[in-house]
Specification:
Blueprint: H1 22-31, H2 37-58, E1 67-69, H3 76-83, H4 103-111, E2 121-123, E3 130-132, E4 135-136, H5 147-158, E5 163-168, H6 170-175, E6 178-179, H7 193-209, E7 214-218, H8 225-229, H9 236-246, E8 252-256, H10 270-278, E9 282-286, H11 295-298, E10 305-311, H12 321-337, E11 341-346, H13 374-390, H14 396-411, H15 418-425, H16 437-448, H17 465-476, H18 481-502, H19 519-524, E12 526-529, E13 536-539, E14 542-544, E15 547-554, H20 561-568, E16 576-580, H21 582-587, E17 589-590, H22 597-617, E18 622-626, H23 641-656, E19 664-669, H24 678-683, E20 688-691, H25 700-707, E21 712-715, H26 728-739, H27 760-781
Parallel strand pairs: 1-5, 4-6, 5-7, 7-8, 8-9, 9-10, 10-11, 15-17, 16-18, 18-19, 19-20, 20-21
Antiparallel strand pairs: 2-3, 12-15, 13-14
Length: 785
Amino acid sequence: MTKATFPAASILGYPRIGPNRELKKALEAHWAARTDEATLHAAARELQNANLARLTGLGLAADDASLPGDFAYYDQVLDATVALSALPARFADLADANGAIDTAASFVLARGDESRAPLEMTKWFDTNYHYLVPEIGEATPVKANAAALVESFAAHAAQGNTIRPTLVGPISYLLLAKPEDGAPAGSDPLSRIDEVVAAYGEILAALAAAGAPWVQLDEPALVTDRGAALAVPGALAETVYTQLAAATARPALLVGLGYGTAGDPARPGATQGLLARTGVEAVHADLVRGAVPTAEFLGDLAGSTLVAGIVDSRNIWRNDLAASLGTLASLRTEVEKAGGTLAVGTATSLQHVPHDVAQEANLPAHLPEWLAFANQKVAEVLTLAKGLAEGESAIAAELSAAESARAHRAGFAGTTVAAVRERLANLTTADFSRSDAATRKAAQETALALPPLPTTTIGSFPQTTQVRTARAAHKAGTLDDAAYEGFLKEEIQRVVELQERLGLDVLVHGEAERNDMVQYFAENFDGFSETENGWVQSYGSRATRPSILWGDVSRPAAFTVPWISHAASLTNKPLKGMLTGPVTILAWSFIRDDQPLATSANQVALALRDEIADLQASGIGIIQVDEPALRELLPLRATDQAKYLGWSVDSFRLATSGAADATQIHTHLCYSEFGEIIEAIDALDADVTSIEAARSRMEVTADLTEFGYSRGIGPGVYDIHSPRVPSTAEVAELIDIALASLDPKSLWINPDCGLKTRGYAETEASLANLVEAAVAARATLGASV
């Protein structure tokens, strides 16, 4: 086919949750049966139309495929599963007579139902977004199901908008999958690549017939070690894209390669050149987290377009336009020598940032000019494309404003605080270590006197409408401080009494005072600021509002102690103090990019160390420091991981090593490939670690056993990311699996994660079943523990 022209400026994707979380509200209303499917579709289409109108208003063209077509109701990987009709056997009845899967069926895959657990969920590369893991076995059906993609393209075309349908590429889809339950040992989803590629060919043909000029296939897995091995001459990436590009009835193809350097990091640009040689019309390169393609490999572009992802789509700082324009100008020279063209884009989809800085009316006065959310990043892409085409003089005002903002940020009071820097400089090796584990264990057994298989929860309890209403009223000034404090104390008492009634062994205060497990800490630390509308999708309808870490961090005063001490006064049972760890606070915030992450992590760790000291002084004997994001920031390449794990473990130990021997330090991790970081988990030196394990049916126990993990461990037995109530028998089965390989003297019984997003009816029923199963297991063990 004739080479198509890619637009000079484009983005790889746009936030789909909505500037006011419109998608979240529509989904949750539908799931609660307050609206029907037609109403859901209408709300989603209205949101998509508004997003496209916003993008064209910012300057992206409506008719040249500049507009991304990456909308998803729940998850882009789930949409690829739907497009392939790739249903695991337990969901086979969800397909229609033609094998197709509709929206309602996709929600069962995502959320489960009374009899079936949903697809497993895990982190999308090194981000806080979660995707639904495909389950591909030797007999899993694979059949093209392009209906939703075609309908979306046609509907937008009717409104005058030519979108670029977007789908996870076939290689990444299979690399992100897991073998279906029951598949033979050693099964590899990648063995189904021929059938998957054939189905993709049919999907592309259907989109071409509908009039789509371009389709975007995202292959971020090619930036991982395993994917990189497939992106060399003669390997799978070349074979797959040669086959896809050879079809005559297809749209032009853009291959997205975000989240790092694709292929061999020592050969930046080689993967882009390899893909261009297959005949695809455009290839992307992430210039923010990846290397800039070099002249040595650009000669392989052979007339294709290189889309330079130079605008950061995972953080919120304003682009250094002058530096970016210089990079682009040099790159264009080499690209044009190779006979290709250069376009300007984002490093990844903008799904990882909020919609618009203009929605933030209450940020500190110094911050807005430093920031760029999704809409501002679109403007930066367009500005850079204009500067590249017309020269610096054409964007002189924008260059000047960007440089002024950068200078203001660097010199602002609070960006660097002498007292914080001095405290870091005075740290010694002793500040990073506790007594040996055996000594601590003996002291804790004496102090706590817990039964075998102790039961607990991860920290948060459901945040009801009443809790959210009271918080909003307090923020608005219609509920005064005394009334709000009284309300929270009553809520804490209710949660404590519920746990005692259920028979849990170690209680929590429920975190009613906390809006979010990171934002709450950011609000009480210097160096952070919070947004009002900076929502970012985490999974499905779940959105988070990352705080902004802009300066040096310290803790002015104790802030968790009053609530946790109050809760402890209401019970004779042990009660955990609940803190969020330094790495997770960084991972779930927009962090400063002007100093090493290790420096920021240690600043946060010292602030937490002060809070732990005050909790301990108030009589709290168990303190949980959550690190669910420890695996999340792990670099995608093995060669980069040791350095990260070194400073991340050190920051946790810095936060916790001031605790006395008798103080039991817990931590919590979730949605991670734990086997990859088991040594780091052990090196945290926590006394007890709770981990997500229910959806994967205790897969993690094999890693723990192989490693010889000997610390306290609580593999989750209740999947809180689904509304299902697990039966006592289900929980008991998971406990039995854990007991088969783990030391019962070290085993704790707990849910996978916090209960904030669940309702009380399902929470009470689930925890009652958890306690019942644990008590029965305890009785069976008897004197053996």
